[in-house]
Amino acid sequence: MSHQIENSRGLRSQLKDSVPVAGLCPQAGPYGVQDTLRRGFSSVKNELLPSHPLELSEKNFQLNQDKLNFTTLRNIQGLHAPLKLQMEYRAARQIQRLPFLPSSNLALDTLRGTDETIGFEDILNDPAQCELMGEPHIMTEYKLGLL
Amino acid sequence: MALSHVFESPVPGFNFENSTRNLLLEDALGEGKSNAPKPLKTGTTIAGVVCKDGVVLGADTRATSSEVVADKMCAKIHYIAPNIYCCGAGTAADTEKTTELLSSNLTIFSMNSGRNPRVVMAANILQNMLFRYHGAIGANLILGGVDCTGSHIYRVGPYGSMDKVPYLAMGSGDLAAMGVLEDRFKPRMEVLKEAKTLVRDAIRAGIMSDLGSGNNIDICVITSKGVDYIRPYQESEYKDNRQKKYKYKPGTTPVLCEKVVRLELELVHETVQKMETS
């Protein structure tokens, strides 16, 4: 079984502050420059143009909702309530299949309550119906942080 | 096909990959010259009125796509729950999909809890959904229904604003319809006699004064006893009568030759299941 390297710093560090820009640090290959072989050609002008106004808020939507819910819960019931729930979330998030296979996230959905609601993320762009597959070795290496 | 540059599986939901490309295309073509397809708008008149023991919703049936009438018999009153219906103005696809999602969510809720959904629940779900997308979903909705707390009408705007009012008109013809409603609305009207006539007249005023509304009028009457969806309530006087038949007579196209190929089927397996006919 593969080990999961969890980000132990909490919710704030997982927020994506921006749409990933090729050519700058996070996507750098092993030599510090943009990995043309894997990421393709990049153009700074293309990356600096504003993307859709909703793109950022949609990327972070689930995290922001969780933060909001936990803060409200903390204000009402005290610190213990969100701590217990976050422990359960962390446990549920570890029940995943390998990165290139689709995981059902059943436990996580039940905890969040999204197993009883239907939104656009259940209808549009369903990953179970995706026609393309990622390369298994590369995806596992990326998940483990080896890439 | 395995792609060597995909690091994470695709995120479900809206896909913004093409937004940069679209912006670039618009800039490249110049202002006013882009040939991007325009979404189908309903350019509507919709109205709703709370009366003594129920709710009356009305809508016209024209859907326009810029200057052309795309659909002469478009259904703008959508089903949400057995006791809740919703009129939608704005972009046709957005209103359709949003109301379908709302209907599914309310069905799941009523199956889970065993209760009939309330109109205020539907309004809250809609409001949360539309606020999340900051107006990108162009849906102006009038939610009306009868539940255990009474009969209600809510207006939900595309940016997530919610309004609870006794009578309401929306769409491009709302000014004309609102004029009629403001003039003749009385609280606690009788459903059958007055309310239906009032809504019909309001929609008619919208149809007459607005280019984006037209054709027939649909009315939906919701009471605690049930729903009466009358479609069309009144047909427009300006129907086009086809003068001729446009079907071709058999024999118009000469047949040159005919070839029949038999499809050979082989019976592999046969099972008989008896049906209970007693």
Descriptive overview:
The complex is a heterodimer of chains A (147) and B (278). The longest helix of chain A is centred in the middle third of the chain and has 17 residues, at 61-77. In chain A, helix 6 packs antiparallel against helix 7 (106-112). The two termini of chain A are 19 Å apart. With 147 residues, chain A is mainly α. In chain A, 3% of the residues are buried. Chain A is 48% helix and 1% strand. Mean pLDDT of chain A is 76; it is low at 1-9 and 21-26. Chain A has a domain at 1-59. Chain B has 278 residues and is of the alpha+beta class. Chain B has 5 helices and 13 strands. In chain B, a hairpin with a 2-residue loop joins strand 6 and strand 7. In chain B, helix 2 packs across helix 3 and helix 4 packs antiparallel against helix 5 (191-209). The longest helix of chain B has 22 residues, at 92-113. The model of chain B has no long low-confidence stretch (mean pLDDT 87). Classes of the chains: A mainly alpha (147), B alpha+beta (278). The interface between A and B is large, with 40 and 31 residues.
Summarize the structure.
The complex is a heterodimer of chains A (147) and B (278). With 147 residues, chain A is mostly helical.
Q: Tell me the major beta sheet of chain A.
A: none
Mean pLDDT of chain B equals 87
Taken from the alpha-carbon principal axes, the silhouette of chain B is globular
Structural class of chain A: mainly alpha
Task: Count helical runs of chain A.
Answer: 9
Whole-Å distance between the termini of chain A? 19 Å
List keywords for this structure.
heterodimer; A: 147 residues; mainly alpha; 48% helix; B: 278 residues; alpha+beta; five-stranded antiparallel sheet; Proteasome maturation protein (chain A); chaperone (chain A)
List the helices and strands and how they pair.
The complex is a heterodimer of chains A (147) and B (278).
Chain A (H helix, E strand, L loop, with lengths): L10 H4 L21 H4 L4 H5 L4 H7 L1 H17 L2 H14 L12 H7 L7 H4 L9 E2 L1 H9 L3
Helix pairs in contact in A: 6-7
Chain B lengths: L1 E2 L15 H11 L15 E7 L2 E7 L2 E3 L2 E4 L5 E5 L2 E7 L1 H22 L5 H14 L6 E9 L2 E7 L5 E3 L2 E5 L2 H11 L6 H19 L7 E7 L2 E9 L44
Antiparallel strand pairs in B: 2-3, 2-11, 3-12, 4-5, 6-7, 7-8, 8-9, 9-10, 12-13
Helix pairs in contact in B: 2-3, 4-5
